[in-house]
UniProtKB/TrEMBL annotation:
Keywords: c-di-GMP. The lineage of its organism: Bacteria, Pseudomonadati, Pseudomonadota, Gammaproteobacteria, Oceanospirillales. Transmembrane segments: none annotated. One of its GO terms (biological process) is regulation of DNA-templated transcription. The chain holds residues 291 to 574 of 576 of the full protein. This is cyclic-guanylate-specific phosphodiesterase. One of its GO terms (molecular function) is cyclic-guanylate-specific phosphodiesterase activity. The keyword Cell cycle does not apply. Residues 23-282 form the EAL domain.
Protein backbone atom coordinates (compact mmCIF):
# COMPACT_ATOMS: atom_id res chain seq x y z
CA UNK A 1 0.00 0.00 0.00
CA UNK A 2 1.23 3.46 -0.82
CA UNK A 3 0.38 6.57 1.14
CA UNK A 4 -2.13 8.63 -0.87
CA UNK A 5 -2.29 11.58 1.52
CA UNK A 6 -4.54 12.55 4.44
CA UNK A 7 -4.26 9.16 6.11
CA UNK A 8 -5.64 7.43 3.08
CA UNK A 9 -4.04 4.37 1.62
CA UNK A 10 -4.43 3.29 -1.93
CA UNK A 11 -3.86 -0.22 -3.11
CA UNK A 12 -2.42 -0.12 -6.60
CA UNK A 13 -1.69 -3.74 -6.95
CA UNK A 14 -4.84 -5.78 -7.45
CA UNK A 15 -2.98 -8.98 -6.71
CA UNK A 16 -1.90 -7.50 -3.40
CA UNK A 17 -5.52 -6.66 -2.66
CA UNK A 18 -6.45 -10.23 -3.49
CA UNK A 19 -3.76 -11.48 -1.19
CA UNK A 20 -5.06 -9.34 1.65
CA UNK A 21 -8.62 -10.53 1.05
CA UNK A 22 -7.39 -14.09 0.86
CA UNK A 23 -5.58 -13.73 4.17
CA UNK A 24 -8.56 -12.22 5.91
CA UNK A 25 -10.79 -14.96 4.52
CA UNK A 26 -8.36 -17.60 5.64
CA UNK A 27 -8.06 -16.09 9.09
CA UNK A 28 -11.78 -16.07 9.75
CA UNK A 29 -12.14 -19.55 8.27
CA UNK A 30 -9.44 -20.77 10.65
CA UNK A 31 -11.12 -19.06 13.60
CA UNK A 32 -14.29 -20.89 12.58
CA UNK A 33 -12.46 -24.19 12.16
CA UNK A 34 -11.37 -24.31 15.81
CA UNK A 35 -14.98 -24.37 17.00
CA UNK A 36 -16.54 -26.44 14.25
CA UNK A 37 -14.69 -29.68 14.33
CA UNK A 38 -12.64 -29.08 11.18
CA UNK A 39 -9.32 -29.79 12.85
CA UNK A 40 -7.82 -33.20 13.30
CA UNK A 41 -4.60 -34.47 14.78
CA UNK A 42 -2.63 -37.05 12.88
CA UNK A 43 0.08 -39.00 14.66
CA UNK A 44 3.38 -40.16 13.23
CA UNK A 45 5.23 -43.00 14.96
CA UNK A 46 8.79 -42.65 16.21
CA UNK A 47 10.31 -46.10 16.27
CA UNK A 48 13.24 -47.94 17.69
CA UNK A 49 15.07 -48.67 14.43
CA UNK A 50 16.49 -51.95 15.63
CA UNK A 51 13.23 -53.51 16.83
CA UNK A 52 10.63 -51.50 14.92
CA UNK A 53 8.79 -50.88 18.17
CA UNK A 54 6.74 -47.66 18.33
CA UNK A 55 8.10 -45.60 21.22
CA UNK A 56 6.27 -42.36 20.77
CA UNK A 57 4.16 -40.42 18.28
CA UNK A 58 4.27 -36.82 17.10
CA UNK A 59 0.95 -35.01 16.84
CA UNK A 60 0.60 -33.19 13.49
CA UNK A 61 -2.29 -30.88 12.79
CA UNK A 62 -4.60 -31.20 9.78
CA UNK A 63 -7.41 -28.89 8.71
CA UNK A 64 -10.38 -30.28 6.81
CA UNK A 65 -11.65 -27.16 5.07
CA UNK A 66 -15.29 -27.58 3.98
CA UNK A 67 -14.55 -26.34 0.42
CA UNK A 68 -10.83 -26.71 -0.05
CA UNK A 69 -10.43 -30.12 1.49
CA UNK A 70 -7.35 -31.12 3.44
CA UNK A 71 -5.00 -28.28 4.30
CA UNK A 72 -1.50 -29.05 5.60
CA UNK A 73 -0.02 -27.15 8.56
CA UNK A 74 2.64 -25.32 6.55
CA UNK A 75 -0.24 -23.58 4.74
CA UNK A 76 -1.93 -22.22 7.87
CA UNK A 77 0.35 -22.40 10.94
CA UNK A 78 2.41 -19.36 9.83
CA UNK A 79 -0.79 -17.31 9.43
CA UNK A 80 -2.06 -18.53 12.81
CA UNK A 81 1.30 -17.52 14.25
CA UNK A 82 1.17 -14.00 12.76
CA UNK A 83 -2.40 -13.33 13.80
CA UNK A 84 -2.13 -14.79 17.28
CA UNK A 85 -4.71 -17.44 16.41
CA UNK A 86 -2.00 -19.97 17.25
CA UNK A 87 -2.86 -19.45 20.92
CA UNK A 88 -6.41 -20.90 20.84
CA UNK A 89 -5.36 -23.27 18.06
CA UNK A 90 -2.42 -24.49 20.13
CA UNK A 91 -4.63 -24.91 23.16
CA UNK A 92 -6.95 -27.10 21.07
CA UNK A 93 -3.96 -29.19 19.96
CA UNK A 94 -2.57 -29.62 23.48
CA UNK A 95 -5.96 -30.58 24.86
CA UNK A 96 -6.72 -33.14 22.16
CA UNK A 97 -3.23 -34.62 22.11
CA UNK A 98 -3.23 -35.03 25.91
CA UNK A 99 -6.65 -36.62 25.87
CA UNK A 100 -5.47 -39.05 23.20
CA UNK A 101 -2.31 -39.78 25.20
CA UNK A 102 -4.43 -40.61 28.25
CA UNK A 103 -6.61 -42.96 26.18
CA UNK A 104 -3.63 -44.77 24.67
CA UNK A 105 -1.99 -45.00 28.07
CA UNK A 106 -5.03 -46.92 29.25
CA UNK A 107 -4.82 -49.28 26.26
CA UNK A 108 -1.10 -50.04 26.53
CA UNK A 109 -1.37 -49.87 30.34
CA UNK A 110 0.16 -52.97 31.85
CA UNK A 111 1.16 -54.37 28.44
CA UNK A 112 4.29 -52.25 28.27
CA UNK A 113 5.76 -48.79 28.61
CA UNK A 114 3.31 -46.03 27.81
CA UNK A 115 3.29 -44.42 24.40
CA UNK A 116 4.41 -40.82 24.55
CA UNK A 117 2.63 -38.13 22.54
CA UNK A 118 4.75 -35.16 21.38
CA UNK A 119 3.18 -31.79 20.65
CA UNK A 120 4.68 -29.02 18.48
CA UNK A 121 4.88 -25.56 20.03
CA UNK A 122 5.46 -22.41 18.02
CA UNK A 123 7.29 -19.22 18.95
CA UNK A 124 4.22 -17.29 19.99
CA UNK A 125 3.06 -20.08 22.29
CA UNK A 126 6.37 -20.33 24.13
CA UNK A 127 6.60 -16.58 24.52
CA UNK A 128 3.25 -16.60 26.28
CA UNK A 129 3.66 -17.11 30.05
CA UNK A 130 0.03 -18.28 30.40
CA UNK A 131 0.92 -21.42 28.46
CA UNK A 132 2.09 -23.14 31.64
CA UNK A 133 -1.20 -22.47 33.45
CA UNK A 134 -3.14 -23.69 30.44
CA UNK A 135 -1.17 -26.92 30.29
CA UNK A 136 -1.61 -27.42 34.04
CA UNK A 137 -5.38 -26.91 33.71
CA UNK A 138 -5.56 -29.35 30.80
CA UNK A 139 -3.64 -31.97 32.79
CA UNK A 140 -5.93 -31.52 35.78
CA UNK A 141 -8.98 -32.02 33.61
CA UNK A 142 -7.70 -35.41 32.38
CA UNK A 143 -9.48 -38.49 33.62
CA UNK A 144 -7.44 -40.97 35.65
CA UNK A 145 -4.94 -38.48 36.98
CA UNK A 146 -3.38 -41.10 39.23
CA UNK A 147 -1.01 -42.19 36.48
CA UNK A 148 1.43 -39.65 35.12
CA UNK A 149 0.64 -38.65 31.57
CA UNK A 150 3.37 -39.37 29.02
CA UNK A 151 3.52 -36.32 26.84
CA UNK A 152 6.10 -33.96 25.46
CA UNK A 153 6.68 -30.77 23.53
CA UNK A 154 8.82 -30.06 20.46
CA UNK A 155 10.36 -26.63 20.03
CA UNK A 156 12.71 -25.26 17.37
CA UNK A 157 15.72 -23.09 18.08
CA UNK A 158 14.21 -20.41 15.89
CA UNK A 159 11.05 -20.37 17.98
CA UNK A 160 13.10 -19.72 21.11
CA UNK A 161 15.13 -16.93 19.52
CA UNK A 162 12.42 -14.33 19.99
CA UNK A 163 12.75 -14.39 23.73
CA UNK A 164 15.32 -16.91 24.97
CA UNK A 165 14.86 -15.90 28.61
CA UNK A 166 11.09 -16.35 28.69
CA UNK A 167 11.33 -19.49 26.54
CA UNK A 168 13.83 -21.07 28.92
CA UNK A 169 11.62 -20.28 31.91
CA UNK A 170 8.48 -21.59 30.20
CA UNK A 171 10.23 -24.79 29.14
CA UNK A 172 11.55 -25.42 32.64
CA UNK A 173 8.06 -25.05 34.06
CA UNK A 174 6.59 -27.36 31.43
CA UNK A 175 9.22 -29.93 32.31
CA UNK A 176 8.24 -29.68 35.97
CA UNK A 177 4.70 -30.54 34.88
CA UNK A 178 6.10 -33.78 33.50
CA UNK A 179 6.57 -32.86 29.85
CA UNK A 180 9.40 -34.42 27.88
CA UNK A 181 11.18 -31.74 25.81
CA UNK A 182 12.60 -32.15 22.32
CA UNK A 183 14.66 -29.70 20.31
CA UNK A 184 13.07 -29.89 16.85
CA UNK A 185 14.70 -29.43 13.42
CA UNK A 186 18.11 -29.45 15.07
CA UNK A 187 20.84 -27.97 12.91
CA UNK A 188 18.61 -25.72 10.81
CA UNK A 189 18.29 -22.75 13.18
CA UNK A 190 20.93 -20.33 14.34
CA UNK A 191 22.51 -23.18 16.19
CA UNK A 192 23.68 -21.75 19.44
CA UNK A 193 25.17 -24.66 21.22
CA UNK A 194 26.06 -22.36 24.12
CA UNK A 195 22.53 -21.96 25.37
CA UNK A 196 21.73 -25.61 24.81
CA UNK A 197 23.25 -26.43 28.15
CA UNK A 198 20.95 -23.99 29.93
CA UNK A 199 17.80 -25.40 28.39
CA UNK A 200 16.14 -28.45 29.87
CA UNK A 201 15.89 -30.62 26.73
CA UNK A 202 15.70 -34.40 26.80
CA UNK A 203 15.92 -35.13 23.08
CA UNK A 204 17.49 -33.72 19.91
CA UNK A 205 15.62 -34.23 16.67
CA UNK A 206 18.06 -34.23 13.75
CA UNK A 207 16.40 -32.38 10.89
CA UNK A 208 15.64 -34.26 7.71
CA UNK A 209 17.96 -32.05 5.64
CA UNK A 210 20.81 -34.07 7.23
CA UNK A 211 19.01 -37.41 7.07
CA UNK A 212 18.44 -36.93 3.35
CA UNK A 213 22.08 -37.36 2.31
CA UNK A 214 23.31 -39.59 5.10
CA UNK A 215 23.73 -42.68 2.90
CA UNK A 216 25.88 -41.03 0.23
CA UNK A 217 27.16 -37.73 1.56
CA UNK A 218 30.18 -37.73 3.84
CA UNK A 219 29.44 -34.17 4.96
CA UNK A 220 26.01 -35.09 6.24
CA UNK A 221 27.52 -38.04 8.05
CA UNK A 222 30.14 -35.81 9.67
CA UNK A 223 27.52 -33.34 10.77
CA UNK A 224 25.36 -36.09 12.24
CA UNK A 225 28.39 -37.61 13.96
CA UNK A 226 29.13 -34.30 15.67
CA UNK A 227 25.49 -33.87 16.64
CA UNK A 228 25.61 -37.30 18.25
CA UNK A 229 28.78 -36.38 20.16
CA UNK A 230 27.11 -33.19 21.34
CA UNK A 231 23.96 -35.03 22.39
CA UNK A 232 26.03 -37.63 24.18
CA UNK A 233 28.00 -34.99 26.05
CA UNK A 234 24.84 -33.25 27.15
CA UNK A 235 23.04 -36.48 28.00
CA UNK A 236 20.37 -36.06 25.32
CA UNK A 237 18.56 -38.73 23.33
CA UNK A 238 18.52 -38.43 19.55
CA UNK A 239 15.82 -38.96 16.93
CA UNK A 240 16.54 -38.80 13.20
CA UNK A 241 13.67 -37.23 11.26
CA UNK A 242 12.60 -37.81 7.69
CA UNK A 243 13.95 -41.33 7.23
CA UNK A 244 12.60 -42.47 3.86
CA UNK A 245 14.91 -45.25 2.64
CA UNK A 246 16.53 -48.45 3.89
CA UNK A 247 19.92 -46.98 2.94
CA UNK A 248 19.32 -44.00 5.23
CA UNK A 249 18.17 -46.30 8.03
CA UNK A 250 21.29 -48.47 7.68
CA UNK A 251 23.63 -45.47 7.57
CA UNK A 252 21.98 -43.96 10.65
CA UNK A 253 22.13 -47.24 12.55
CA UNK A 254 25.82 -47.52 11.68
CA UNK A 255 26.35 -44.04 13.15
CA UNK A 256 24.57 -45.15 16.32
CA UNK A 257 21.18 -43.48 15.90
CA UNK A 258 18.57 -45.68 17.58
CA UNK A 259 15.32 -43.80 17.17
CA UNK A 260 13.92 -42.76 13.84
CA UNK A 261 10.85 -41.12 12.33
CA UNK A 262 9.91 -41.02 8.69
CA UNK A 263 7.85 -42.32 5.81
CA UNK A 264 9.94 -45.53 5.72
CA UNK A 265 8.33 -46.57 9.01
CA UNK A 266 4.98 -44.81 8.87
CA UNK A 267 3.28 -41.71 7.56
CA UNK A 268 1.27 -39.53 9.93
CA UNK A 269 -2.01 -41.41 10.55
CA UNK A 270 -5.36 -40.85 12.20
CA UNK A 271 -5.67 -41.95 15.82
CA UNK A 272 -7.76 -44.96 14.75
CA UNK A 273 -5.02 -46.26 12.45
CA UNK A 274 -2.35 -45.71 15.11
CA UNK A 275 -4.47 -47.69 17.53
CA UNK A 276 -4.56 -50.64 15.14
CA UNK A 277 -0.77 -50.44 14.76
CA UNK A 278 -0.44 -50.45 18.55
CA UNK A 279 -2.73 -53.47 18.86
CA UNK A 280 -0.65 -55.31 16.29
CA UNK A 281 2.64 -54.45 17.94
CA UNK A 282 1.26 -55.54 21.34
CA UNK A 283 0.21 -58.86 19.86
CA UNK A 284 3.53 -59.32 18.08
P1 LIG B 1 7.80 -30.73 11.98
O1 LIG B 1 7.51 -30.49 13.43
O2 LIG B 1 9.23 -30.76 11.59
O3 LIG B 1 7.06 -32.09 11.62
C1 LIG B 1 7.55 -33.08 10.75
C2 LIG B 1 7.01 -32.90 9.36
O4 LIG B 1 7.74 -33.75 8.48
C3 LIG B 1 5.55 -33.31 9.21
O5 LIG B 1 4.95 -32.49 8.21
C4 LIG B 1 5.68 -34.75 8.71
O6 LIG B 1 4.55 -35.21 8.00
C5 LIG B 1 6.87 -34.62 7.81
N1 LIG B 1 7.55 -35.88 7.62
C6 LIG B 1 7.62 -36.94 8.46
N2 LIG B 1 8.36 -37.93 7.95
C7 LIG B 1 8.79 -37.51 6.74
C8 LIG B 1 9.60 -38.11 5.71
O7 LIG B 1 10.08 -39.23 5.80
N3 LIG B 1 9.83 -37.35 4.60
C9 LIG B 1 9.31 -36.09 4.45
N4 LIG B 1 9.57 -35.45 3.32
N5 LIG B 1 8.53 -35.51 5.40
C10 LIG B 1 8.29 -36.21 6.52
P2 LIG B 1 3.55 -31.77 8.43
O8 LIG B 1 2.59 -32.66 9.17
O9 LIG B 1 3.13 -31.22 7.12
O10 LIG B 1 3.91 -30.57 9.42
C11 LIG B 1 4.73 -29.52 8.98
C12 LIG B 1 5.11 -28.60 10.12
O11 LIG B 1 3.97 -27.92 10.61
C13 LIG B 1 5.70 -29.32 11.32
O12 LIG B 1 7.06 -29.63 11.07
C14 LIG B 1 5.48 -28.29 12.40
O13 LIG B 1 6.49 -27.31 12.36
C15 LIG B 1 4.16 -27.66 11.98
N6 LIG B 1 3.06 -28.22 12.79
C16 LIG B 1 2.34 -29.35 12.56
N7 LIG B 1 1.41 -29.53 13.52
C17 LIG B 1 1.55 -28.50 14.38
C18 LIG B 1 0.88 -28.11 15.60
O14 LIG B 1 -0.02 -28.77 16.13
N8 LIG B 1 1.31 -26.96 16.20
C19 LIG B 1 2.34 -26.20 15.70
N9 LIG B 1 2.69 -25.09 16.36
N10 LIG B 1 2.98 -26.54 14.57
C20 LIG B 1 2.60 -27.67 13.92
CA1 LIG C 1 8.09 -31.47 15.26
CA1 LIG D 1 11.02 -31.54 12.80
CA1 LIG E 1 9.94 -28.42 10.49
Amino acid sequence: AKRAGRGQYACFDPSLREQVAERIGMESALRHAIHHDELQLYYQPIVSAATGRIESVEALLRWHHPERGLIMPDAFIPLAEETGLIVPLGRWVIEHACRQAALWQRITGSAGPALQVSINLSARQIAQPRLVDEVRAILQSMPGDDTRLHFGFEVTETAMMHDPQVSAETLSQLRRLGAHLSLDDFGTGYSSMAYLKHLPFDTLKIDRTFTRGVAEDGCDRSIIRSMLALADGLGLDVIAEGVETRAQQQALLALGVQRMQGFLFARPQSAAVIERMLDDSLKA
